[in-house]
Design goal:
Rossmann fold, alpha/beta, six-stranded mixed β-sheet, six-stranded parallel β-sheet, about 20% strand, about 325 residues
Length: about 325
């Protein structure tokens, strides 16, 4: 992972910035301990109190992200208050209010609603709290947003699907509720298809947030479009619903998606599935970057407003052995 852009924006010594953003496997984050203890700007780092509000914990992706956050924060001797919003905006709003009442210094939020959460973010900033938006970009006065290269992920997924169906035919898109990350993924997907004018997107279905919903929609699509050759989903949870629906209907429709979900990776790795590719994000990379940015800002140095982590396309040839 390249850190040069962030390092250029830091006023703290490079050793601190590098350690604070050790976004490889967790063990490599440990040098932050010595870097912080030896840095004159960081005498109070052990008093940092992090608040972490996560949209939901039913998805392995968010479980991996929370585990990485816990490890990163624990590695510097800081403390953490964590809350699961259970996909409910009002719950997340109350969780953040509770965190502010407990005197947190840094808020890392994976938002349930990027627009409505603005009021809570404004309160946090007014209280002097550093706010890092993680995974999805809050439309409010955050200090920085950490996410994946979502346009690139969508483009890679679209390009792979286009080549798999020989550059022609009907495809469909199934998406979650609108948010910046999904919008960018669809935009990237469409950018890839622009190079394949013989491919037609027959429908884009939005506001599908559960695997079973995606399965039900797939049954309808397969009935409506007998010649459908491919389906792109904006995340692997939806992709799994599509996959099992196509199996039930005995339809060999090519599927590509985004995330790197362990169950999807296993399916792709078999090599005998029509779920042909996923573009993997790294919840671990994002988590460590968010903690690092929060520390740097708390210690008084400027940080860049956006930090995007790399994505990797996984297919039969490289899926085996991959994990978050």
């Amino acid at each position: 992972m390249r850190l040069s852009h962030l390092l250029a924006a830091c006023c703290l010594p490079a050793v601190l910035c590098t350690a604070a953003l050790a976004v490889e496997p967790p063990a490599t984050f440990n040098p932050i301990l010595s870097a912080l203890s030896s840095n004159p700007y960081s005498a109070n780092h052990r008093r940092i109190r992090f608040g972490v509000s996560i949209v939901q914990m039913n998805n392995p992706y968010y479980i991996s992200m929370q585990n990485a956050l816990k490890h990163a924060i624990g590695s510097i001797g800081a403390t953490m208050v964590v809350a699961n919003a259970r996909d409910d905006f009002n719950t997340q709003l109350q969780d953040i209010e509770n965190m502010l009442a407990q005197g947190i210094d840094v808020l890392i939020v994976v938002p349930s609603d990027v627009r409505r959460i603005r009021s809570a973010i404004e309160k946090a900033r007014q209280a002097g709290v550093v706010v890092i938006s993680l995974d999805a970009q809050v439309l409010g006065p955050i200090n920085s947003y950490v996410g994946s290269k979502n346009y690139e992920a969508g483009f890679k997924s679209g390009d792979y699907l286009a080549n798999a169906i020989d550059g022609e035919g009907q495809v469909a898109i199934i998406s979650t509720s609108e948010r910046q990350s999904t919008t960018e993924r669809i935009r990237g997907f469409m950018g890839a298809l622009a190079n394949h004018p013989q491919i037609k997107v027959v429908e884009t279905i939005s506001d599908i947030n559960e695997s079973n919903q995606a399965g039900n929609i797939t049954h309808l699509l397969l009935s409506k479009y007998p010649g459908l050759k491919g389906i792109f989903t904006v995340n692997d949870i939806l992709g799994l619903g599509v996959y099992y629906a196509t199996l039930y209907d005995h339809r060999n429709v090519k599927i590509t998606s985004i995330d790197g979900n362990p169950n999807v990776v296993k399916i792709i790795a078999t090599g005998d599935s029509h779920f042909i590719a996923t573009v993997a994000q790294s919840p671990t990379d994002q988590a460590y970057a968010a903690v690092g940015l929060g520390i740097i800002k708390y210690l008084g140095a400027p940080i860049q407003p956006e930090f995007l982590t790399d994505v990797t396309l996984l297919d039969f040839y490289n899926a085996r052995g991959f994990s978050w």
